[in-house]
Design goal:
220 residues, Nucleotidyltransferase, domain 5, Arc Repressor Mutant, subunit A, alpha/beta, 2 domains
Length: 220
């Protein structure tokens, strides 16, 4: 009997706030064709309500997995120019959590095949790895993983809002509400927190003059 098929994608890579979430969707080969009629597609093209609806529907077609990469790990990787490697390692970790024999991944590397080789090596797997650009758009099992990643990322930001008691926006640098929130936070004396990506140029641009004090706080 053929092994199962796994799709992997991420959400929140460009955000200045909160985790990067790697999502996986695992299903039997014979059920992959059920995904298109459900309406799975690149999660960025779907409303939040539609993503949440699909997230529930996907539970009846396969298994969902999500791994969060916290800002501190992202900052450490960025400082060494290894964000793609960090993502590859997390993809590989997710693969090792499954029995997949065929894996489709959305490549963050400009050379998609190189990213696939790196993921396969890190996963130490015999599974077939297919690495493609725009896989979240073109490969249904990756579209499903995109939905998983985005829904879990949305919920992580919801938890952060509740923890902070303030609307911090979407977390992306292009969001004016997020910019205002980050700018206001950086003006406070105790500024080192676990939910902010200090390696982002947005932080450097928005922080006031003078050094930030270091006071680590737990991620909610």
């Amino acid at each position: 009997m053929p092994g199962r098929v796994l799709g992997i994608d991420e959400a929140g890579r460009g955000s200045v706030i909160g985790p990067l979430v790697v999502g996986g969707f695992l299903t039997d080969p014979g059920r992959v064709e059920e995904l298109r009629p459900l309406g799975v597609r690149d999660s960025k093209l779907l409303s939040r309500a539609r993503r949440e609806s699909l997230f529930e529907a996907l539970k009846h077609v396969g298994d969902q997995i999500a791994l969060e990469i916290p800002p501190a790990d992202i900052d450490a990787a960025v400082r060494h120019g290894q964000l793609n490697l960090l993502e590859a390692r997390t993809f590989a970790r997710l693969i090792r959590m499954t029995d997949a024999q065929e894996v489709y991944v959305d490549a963050c590397d400009p050379v998609a095949e190189r990213f696939g080789r790196r993921v396969k090596s890190l996963a130490r797997t015999r599974a077939r790895i297919v690495s493609r650009h725009k896989a979240d758009r073109d490969v249904p099992v990756v579209s499903a993983a995109s939905v998983v990643a985005k829904v879990c990322r949305d919920r992580a930001i919801d938890r952060l809002r509740r923890h902070l008691g303030v609307d911090c926006g979407s977390g992306y640098p292009s969001d004016e509400r997020t910019q205002q929130f980050v700018s206001g936070h950086l003006a406070l004396p105790a500024a080192k927190v676990a939910w902010l990506r200090y390696s982002w140029s947005t932080v450097e641009r928005l922080k006031p003059r003078g050094s930030l004090q270091t006071l680590d706080r737990e991620w909610p």
